[in-house]
């Protein structure tokens, strides 16, 4: 541990008291997460922002779509600051706003009512487009409830950008594979054939998370050959064949609870970002064996280091807060509020 960065952070937190709140996603490394006041999965973090009315500064340790969501949910005058504003999300980048809009226009040109459901792992412009088309957002924790909602709204759903989360959620709802199609978004949607997609109620954007793509069904087979009693829990951003072979799948908070509730002495293999898995391994050492299915690291989550956090806190009054253009935020908030309303 770098004592000087830790001491700097602790001293600033003591001095600023309740006017400073540090939030962190479960994928942050141990040196950063130890300084957070609040941590959670994407849904919990979004919900918690609304309860922080007394804080002047919210420092958000995660990736940019999360900090943007916090900034849009913050009260007027509250500043959301990102220690690593350049930390994006590879999956979110796979569905840019103008392309999402073009694809939706093409899919609805013949009057078909397609309701978009965007994973929160999208930038604010995409959330705004989704709101304008009557849709909403979801997280890995509430995807089944939100997909059910979206399917009930129109003639079909466009789920974006994570095709794996879309397939895994459809599996949970029992939506047959014959009713799903992964769409071609090349050439601003010009490659799409809306007539050929008419029989499909779930249209899946062809995106995925590079961190969760590294987990395979073969790794689970090997674990089970080595230790038939081992438990396997994975994030639903993993491929459907991985989720199908695991004992359970769910959000980062679900995975934490799953490990906590596993019987003493259990061996648990986890298919998600390695910072979280290593922290769980440390916390349960001597009681349960927690191991990554394979070492998979999110380089964007890693951009917030203890050093970067300390430097951010030292310059807090001078750092530009995270902002979202007013017209984008106005619409994007509608999509986020719909989710918070449907999944209270
Ligand atoms: P959770 O909402 O499960 O925390 O997941 C966020 C994420 O980015 C997973 O890759
Ligand atoms: Fe994005 Fe995947 Fe990193 Fe999550 S783990 S922030 S989905 S790249």
Number of helices: 14
- Record the strand order, biggest sheet: 6-5-7-9-8
Unique ligands: 1,3-dihydroxyacetonephosphate, iron/sulfur cluster
Distance between the termini: 39 Å
Q: Return residue spans where pLDDT drops below 50 for at least 5 consecutive residues.
A: none
Q: What is the mean pLDDT? A: 97
CATH class of the largest domain: Alpha Beta
Beta fraction = 15-25%
Basic shape: globular
CATH architecture of the largest domain: 3-Layer(aba) Sandwich
> Could you please say which CATH topology of the largest domain applies here?
Rossmann fold
Q: Considering the protein shown, what is the CATH homologous superfamily of the largest domain?
A: NadA-like
Q: Give the fraction of residues assigned to helices.
A: 40-55%
Which structural class should the secondary elements be placed in? alpha/beta
Radius of gyration over C-alpha positions, nearest whole angstrom:
20 Å
Structure commentary:
The protein is α/β, with parallel strands linked by helices and 344 residues long. It folds into 3 domains: 109 residues, Rossmann fold; 119 residues, 3-Layer(aba) Sandwich (Rossmann fold), CATH 3.40.50; 78 residues, NadA-like (Rossmann fold). It is 41% helix and 15% strand. Helix 3 packs parallel to helix 4 and helix 7 crosses helix 8. The longest helix is centred in the C-terminal third of the chain and has 17 residues. The two termini are 39 Å apart. The model has no long low-confidence stretch (mean pLDDT 97). The site of 1,3-dihydroxyacetonephosphate has 12 residues, from loops.
